[in-house]
Amino acid sequence: MDVDTFRTLLTPSGQALLAEVHDRAGIESDHALGARLRQAHNGDLVAAAVTQNHLRGLAVDRFGTDAGRMYFTHEALRRTTAAPVADHRAYRMRALGVRRVVDVGCGLGGDLLGFARVGVDVRGIDTDPVLVEIARANLEALGLPGSVEVGDARDVVAAEDEVVFCDPERGAARGGVAGRNALSPPWDLVSSMLAGRAVASVFPGVAHGDLPDGVEAEWIGTGGDVVGTTLWGAGLVDGGSIRRATLLPRGESIAGDGDGDAPIGEVGRFLLEPHEVVIRAGLTARLATDLGGWLPDPQLHWISTDDPVDTPFARVHTVLRELPFRTPKLRIALRDREIGAVTVKSHGLLIAPDALIAKLRLEGPNTATVVLTRVAGEGRAFLVEARPPR
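Above: the chain sequence. Below: its structure as tokens.
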């Protein structure tokens, strides 16, 4: 889709075409609908309308009902920020006293919308003229103020009262894995921005050793997944290099300057499996300390307690009994209990759960969960049961 086609889609006749595509989708086949509409409309415009209708359906997971009024491209939708994450960042910015933001590489405007919703003045910049038009249209469609212009992040000069926001495009590095050397704008530019009043959204797997000095790194999770990492620049946060784990939609968070020390000891009555945001942020020991627990092994991500705890940051398992760690004896112990389906949980051990389950060759009507960990350097196995929140 080019700029002229998109602008035509915004005209009254283009909007009428888009409405007709939406109304007839699922009633007429895509082929029949497209063929009929091309008799009265330009083929590129029809293709754009059909694509937008399809993408609006896909975008509901990220933007809710707003998706039905917004505009997208396939690639921009794939990498745009979901509304809950954008809103979380926007509220934090507002709480930090930010009143104006320049979003460099704004794409279709997912973060622009979040900032504008909380009353922050927004200015978007992108190198792609089509995305600039789309971001403008999305702001207008949702009744939000802001400006968007064509430009390059390397040339942006922020006003004195503007905070720079950057969500670098993630290319594929060698081996197909996105890393800091595959970012655009490049990592060096992003790092230099973060020395001042800037915020950047980067890939969840960013290495702790690569984090610029003085920034707060916030890993954000929804459900059981890590959905992004936000770096808060040294000019916005105090207290030096901080790591934070945050869970949406409620925004609970824990923070610290690293794992630190936590007691080490035997497995108690409960085993806690930290959420992936806690693991990525390197805050397992911090969580253990906060909960009055300890670590069976300082290198593995398990926490143990003797008292029941409630926390959004970990799944709590009641320890039923210890089982043999070695596969042959473990198989016998599980077969004796007529366990035919087992879930194996292991963090940091060179054990592939699916491969182990295949080796066990279990049969029986019962199900079970087995945790594999180390205690005092020795491999141990425990039969556990997930404890529902109180």
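Confidence is low (pLDDT under 50) at residues 172-177.
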